[in-house]
Amino acid sequence: MAELSPEFSQLYARVDRPSIAPKKLLRALLLQVLYSVRSERLLMEQLDYNLLFRWFVGLDMDDPVWDATVFTKNRQRLLAGDIARAFFGADGRSRHSANDRGDRLKRLGPLSGADNRKINARMALRVAHRGYVIQTGRIMLQDAAAELLRSDLVRKTYLGEK
Asked: Is 0.70 topped by the overall pTM?
């Protein structure tokens, strides 16, 4: 993120309502995707009371949460500036492969909530060190995330693979 700071500084509004820091905005958008939060209004509600969300985004406990419309405008400005693409490509991975994944998801068409949960679970297991499968409030499986991804049971039952 440090190398993107000059580009981030160009996105701040000079007049009207204060802008949301682009780093915080990207972190909030990442939470929205990973936790399948349906709308930006619900995301703001989560940020209002969920301490984990606040910590991840970089908000202190007494910081005010942004208005949903301000968040939307800032998100639109961020995405129009191609900063999000640079951010997600800044980890050293090929941007081409990320675009390919996005194209494959677009070809799938509208996804159901269950499809989103499967995609989010798969993405979370790819970046996590350890994984837990929780069903009806009980831990059913726990192991290294890579092992859970290789497990036939997890892939068939929870990730929808055949």
From this structure: no
